[in-house]
Amino acid sequence: MNTRQQEIQKALVSPPSFVWYMMRKLPSVIFWGIRISRLDLAQCHTRLPFNWRSTNPFRSIYFSAMAGAAELASGALCMLHITGKGSYSMLVTNFEATFHKKANQTVTMSCLDGKKIQETIAGLRYPGDTATVTVAVSSQLPNGESPASFAITWSFKRR
Fold first, then answer.
1. Are the C-beta atoms of 53 and 33 separated by less than 8 Å?
2. Residue 70, helix vs strand vs coil
3. For residue 135, which of 45, 94, 113, 120 is within the disulfide window of CB 3.0 to 4.6 Å?
4. What is the DSSP string of 71-119?
5. Membrane spanning segments where (predicted)?
6. CA distance 70 to 13
7. What letters, b where the CB count within 10 A reaches 16 and e where it falls short, cover 2-37?
């Protein structure tokens, strides 16, 4: 991990700097109470609490809060991989979600596709090069059950 990646990793895992960054970039993440619990080049884990801000009238976590936590898990991992390696743009180009059961407890989202992201970024050698990568994000309740699974496609362009 390069020095800039270490700085970003520390900033995103540290609550005060995470809150400051998200307030400027993604305030809904702060409203829902999402936090990054683990971030390295291989994986990212986010936690979405079950509270009044993230629930719907049916006493389960609102699907958009779960989608936001899943996107953050994959997006933070993507951002970590492009940090310090030149100028890139990144954008979600496809988002698929499958909901398996009611999420009525804190949910942990996990993206374990760091190697896949790294290989995709490595293929962008020249300005104007583009690539996409689809990463899996799984979810887990404290009892081990999975309320949802996600497939998020990120598009990258080297500037």
1. yes
2. helix
3. 113
4. HHHHHHHHHHHHTTSS-EEEEEEEEEEEE-S---S-EEEEE--HHHHHH
5. 61-82
6. 16
7. eeebeebbeebbeeeebeebbeeebeebbebbbbbe
132: enclosing H helix or E strand: strand 130-140
pTM across the whole model: 0.94
- What is the three-class DSSP state of 54? coil
pLDDT digits (tens, 9 = 90+) for 42-52: 999 999 999 99
Our measurement of the distance from residue 142's CA atom to the centroid of its chain's CA atoms, rounded to an integer in Å, reads: 19
Per residue in 118-144, pLDDT (tens digit) is 999 999 999 999 999 999 999 999 999
Domain limits of the chain?
Answer: 3-158
Could you confirm whether domain 3-158 is CATH 3.40.1190.10? no
Listed residue (23, 129, 46) closest to 82, CA to CA: 129
Which contacts of 3-8 are long-range, i.e. CB under 8 A and separated by 24 or more positions? Answer: 3/84, 4/83, 4/84, 5/41, 5/80, 5/83, 5/84, 8/79, 8/80, 8/83
Using alpha carbons, select from 132, 135, 113 the residue that is nearest to residue 124: 132
3-class DSSP state for residue 52? coil
